[in-house]
Sequence to fold (229 residues):
Amino acid sequence: ETGVTQTPRHLVMGMTNKKSLKCEQHLGHNAMYWYKQSAKKPLELMFVYSLEERVENNSVPSRFSPECPNSSHLFLHLHTLQPEDSALYLCASSRDRNPSGNTIYFGEGSWLTVV
Amino acid sequence: GESVGLHLPTLSVQEGDNSIINCAYSNSASDYFIWYKQESGKGPQFIIDIRSNMDKRQGQRVTVLLNKTVKHLSLQIAATQPGDSAVYFCAEKPPYNQGGKLIFGQGTELSVKP
Fold:
């Protein structure tokens, strides 16, 4: 139990579907993140939220739309995805966004398959 | 491309032996480093971290060594157990004025033979 909970754990969706990934952190952290993990590739940072404000968008296609309604919850809305978007999507949180010694804690991830 | 890499993509050790997983980083100004463990089907799990003002830090059965001269980080696991089988990857954190975002390596797969 990492204190970061993601749902669903597995999702299969068609290219015309609209779905959402949900993340909740129980750590009292102020920063939340979405990462993408593809096979045999390093983690790719997608979005960063600090105190519910999006502070970073790493050139992610608009078919991925994040939402952070409060400091404990983070969503990733998905629409018209492509098969190459199939990956493990990881949510993470940290106490603050920048100071060193600021460990990022990950959830278990949501396995997404686009068919 | 990624600035953090691992020397060996796979490592196989006998149960009870010590394991050493290595990592090279590229930014000499990085001031914080983390090791994560990722078991199959799970998210990355924090193992141990170290700040750049230290060269060694010990945890329970794990030790991280930092050699800033050659920009090298290693994770030592004592008395490796089957439950240690996983992918291990390191991350470096450049200072805030250089982005401050964690940069992750690809990972080394550790396989423990019983």
